[in-house]
Design brief:
6 helices, D-Maltodextrin-Binding Protein, domain 2, Fructose-1,6-Bisphosphatase, Chain A, domain 1, 17 strands, 32% strand, single chain, 2 domains, seven-stranded mixed sheet, alpha+beta
């Protein structure tokens, strides 16, 4: 991956994510936010909007020449090869419903591929972040210990298959996929259902071997995680479904029409 950000910029982006996380944490713990309905009937909180404004204002100073596309922003038209994708609160429904499975996503796209990613979950497991530095090393940060460590993904055991997926995924759909692609695990797999980009962290830390996503998602939902898993030699692949049959496509690309993603899979089985 091409290195576009220097270490100072990455440090500033990390600190910005921490500030955004404090806003989210305070609003979440004190139930201090308003809820609005967007044009597409989805919910958004006043905290989403506050964090969006914070990140856009500060990120434009850290990287003044790179456009910013934010879920709650209006910028969608630009000709640059590089741009940021921001989700101020990924997992807004969890945030609104007092579930700690939400996070802040900041990603950088270059030539339709993710080259930098940061996921920060300010409350989940006491507050955790994962991102890549200018050396393209994957870094894990624990808010509880305030310590950083490099992640080297170890080989997973093939004795049992854990699949991480959305909380809205139907068990039957997963079972049909396993039956087609991993029949040896049909009676020996478990499901881990979570919200937001936290699902990527379960792949990164070896808690799951497969990430399945059968529903529509947006580029800002997944770009951060995609950037990080690429650095540990994993890939996010389009997953097609037609006539009750799954088929694998190419690596997912960015700056698509309306920023909408297809179904996808990450296979971390060794």
């Amino acid at each position: 991956m091409q290195n576009i950000l220097n270490q100072w910029q990455i440090n500033e982006i990390f600190n910005l994510a921490l500030k955004a996380g404090e806003i989210a944490k305070d609003a979440f713990l004190n139930n201090n936010f308003k809820i609005y309905t967007k044009d597409d009937k989805s919910k958004v909180s006043s905290t989403d909007l506050e964090i969006s404004q914070l990140i856009i204002q500060n990120l434009s100073k850290i990287c003044p020449n790179i456009p910013i596309v934010c879920e709650e922003g209006s910028n969608r038209e630009f000709n640059d090869n590089s741009f940021f994708l921001i989700d101020p609160i990924d997992g807004t429904s969890s945030f609104i419903n007092n579930v700690d499975e939400f996070c802040i996503n900041i990603a950088l796209i270059h030539n339709n591929k993710p080259v930098f990613g940061l996921i920060y979950a300010p409350i989940y497991q006491g507050g955790i972040a994962v991102f890549n530095n200018h050396l393209n090393e994957v870094i894990f940060y624990s808010h509880q210990t305030q310590k950083f460590k490099k992640i080297n993904r170890h080989k997973s055991s093939n004795n049992h298959l854990t699949i991480v997926t959305s909380i809205r995924t139907k068990n039957e759909d997963v079972n049909n996929f396993v039956k087609q692609y991993y029949p040896n695990f049909l009676d020996n797999y478990s499901l881990l259902k979570l919200s937001s980009a936290i699902k990527f962290i379960k792949i990164i830390d070896n808690s799951a071997q497969i990430y399945l996503h059968f529903r529509k998602s947006m580029e800002w939902d997944i770009a951060s995680g995609h950037a990080i898993i690429n650095l540990i030699n994993l890939h996010l692949i389009n997953l097609n479904y037609e006539n009750n049959y799954f088929s694998l496509g190419d690596e997912l690309q960015y700056k698509k029409n309306n920023f909408i993603n297809n179904r996808f899979i990450i296979n971390a089985l060794n």
